[in-house]
């Protein structure tokens, strides 16, 4: 197949967040299985369009950082053409009357377009032209939007030229609604204001002739509420088992870890909730306990959590798996965010016992001996006491979770199902 993958999120390095991990690994699978792949994406801070293809070797403008060029070269190894467009900067948050006028205009633009403002501001007219020209020239059999926000680049006539697959990743409406209901929203007034727009945006793409892909039954049910007849296939995430090998020993102790991109709202809320509401109760019984918050781009709010002497905020680390292997337990205290969680799968693959919320364990059959579930402070404290006190329980969870990932959550398995969706074949159970 000739495939165009559209991703406003730059999918490299594939360790920054769930969107990057999923997009990159599915891209690798499709390329390894003989398909012709073009990737069009966006990158923050870029000042010019960069394109690399067999006909157009990549050149390195003097103002492009070496690391950016290295990341683009790495993507070029798994795609035939890589086109990288500048990500438009976020609008300035100006004070006073001018700022209120700016916000009012953005709201009106969202109302008339039925596109949430955080999606509108990412749209690149140059990228739209590049996509439209190539699609209308008949270059592709299939277009994929790697996250539902990329449907903004799909034009009505594209259906005349190619199949279109929306790899939803996770429901934006479900995440925003849950954040409001749980008190996890970082800006409740804003999110309440835009909730109806996000609702209409998701309902619209669910009623288009797209093939939809989600990661969990929960997301499938949510989108079916928009359109009961929508063709939706579940394609779970996977784990690179070589990058996340099973740990050689249980380190014991009282070291807790939470991992993820620390500039993402649901991760910020989870880290804050655990550090401020759960961890103090843990310290009352285990004063030597430590809580590691591991992940890139920690916001000032996350960095402030590290002012507690037993809370360590690392920022981006060279090897996530090394930190996982040194932890006694991995906590996944998410209170919002739909979709399967890579952080949970990676901890399970690495052999680290997991205590997670309903959101953190979404899409996983963990009942019995694969992880412990907790949603309230009391439930977290009880689960962690069990694991701290009983090495045999840690060992049981560790072994069974690794076996579960090996048999159910590999990128080969996920890629095979995704390939079937792209080719129009009936999905397999």
Write structural notes for this entry:
- The protein is α/β, with parallel strands linked by helices and 429 residues long.
- 43% of the residues lie in helices and 15% in strands.
- The chain has 15 helices and 14 strands.
- The chain has helices at residues 18-32, 66-76, 96-113, 117-120, 125-136, 172-182, 188-206, 217-224, 265-285, 300-305, 320-325, 342-349, 377-389, 391-408, 411-423, and strands at 2-7, 36-43, 50-52, 81-86, 142-146, 163-167, 211-214, 232-234, 255-259, 290-294, 311-315, 329-332, 354-356, 372-373.
- It has an 8-stranded mixed beta sheet, with helices on both faces. A 6-stranded parallel beta sheet has the order 11-10-9-12-13-14, sandwiched between helices.
- Helix 1 (18-32) packs across helix 15 (411-423) and helix 9 crosses helix 13 (377-389).
- The two termini are 23 Å apart.
């Amino acid at each position: 197949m000739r495939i165009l993958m559209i991703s406003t999120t730059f999918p490299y390095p594939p360790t920054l967040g769930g969107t990057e991990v999923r997009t990159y690994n599915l891209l690798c699978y499709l390329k390894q299985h003989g398909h012709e792949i073009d990737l069009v994406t966006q990158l923050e801070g870029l000042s010019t369009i960069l394109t690399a293809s067999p006909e157009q070797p990549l050149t390195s403008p003097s103002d492009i950082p070496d690391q950016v060029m290295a990341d683009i070269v790495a993507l070029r190894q798994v795609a035939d053409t890589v086109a990288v467009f500048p990500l438009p900067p976020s609008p300035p948050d100006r004070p006073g009357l001018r700022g209120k006028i700016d916000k009012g205009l953005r709201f009106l633009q969202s109302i008339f377009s039925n596109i949430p403002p955080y999606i509108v501001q990412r749209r690149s007219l140059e990228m739209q032209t590049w996509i439209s020209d190539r699609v209308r020239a008949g270059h592709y059999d299939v277009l994929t939007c790697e996250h539902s926000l990329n449907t903004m680049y799909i034009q009505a006539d594209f259906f005349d030229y190619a199949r279109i697959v929306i790899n939803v990743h996770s429901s934006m409406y479900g995440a925003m609604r849950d954040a409001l209901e749980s008190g996890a929203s970082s800006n409740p007034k804003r999110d309440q204001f835009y909730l109806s727009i996000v609702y209409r945006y998701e309902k619209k793409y669910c009623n288009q002739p797209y093939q939809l892909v989600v990661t969990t039954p929960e997301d499938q049910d949510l989108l079916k509420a928009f359109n009961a007849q929508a063709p939706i296939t579940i394609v779970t995430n996977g784990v690179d088992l070589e990058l996340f090998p099973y740990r050689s020993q249980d380190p014991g102790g009282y070291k807790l870890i939470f991992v993820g991109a620390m500039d993402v709202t649901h991760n910020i809320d989870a880290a804050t909730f655990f550090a401020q509401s759960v961890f103090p109760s843990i310290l009352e019984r285990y004063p030597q306990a430590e809580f590691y918050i591991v992940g890139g781009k920690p916001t000032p709010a996350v960095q402030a959590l590290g002012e507690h002497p037993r809370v360590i905020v690392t920022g981006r680390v060279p090897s996530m798996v090394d930190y996982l292997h040194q932890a006694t337990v991995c906590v996944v205290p998410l209170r919002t965010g739909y979709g399967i969680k890579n952080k949970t799968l990676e901890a399970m693959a690495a052999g680290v016992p997991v205590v997670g919320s309903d959101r953190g364990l979404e899409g996983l059959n963990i009942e019995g001996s694969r992880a412990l579930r907790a949603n309230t402070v009391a439930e977290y404290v009880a689960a962690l006491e069990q694991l701290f006190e009983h090495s045999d329980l840690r060992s049981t969870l560790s072994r069974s979770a690794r076996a579960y990932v090996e048999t159910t959550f590999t990128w080969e398995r996920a890629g095979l199902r995704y390939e079937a969706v792209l080719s129009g074949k009936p999905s397999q159970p």
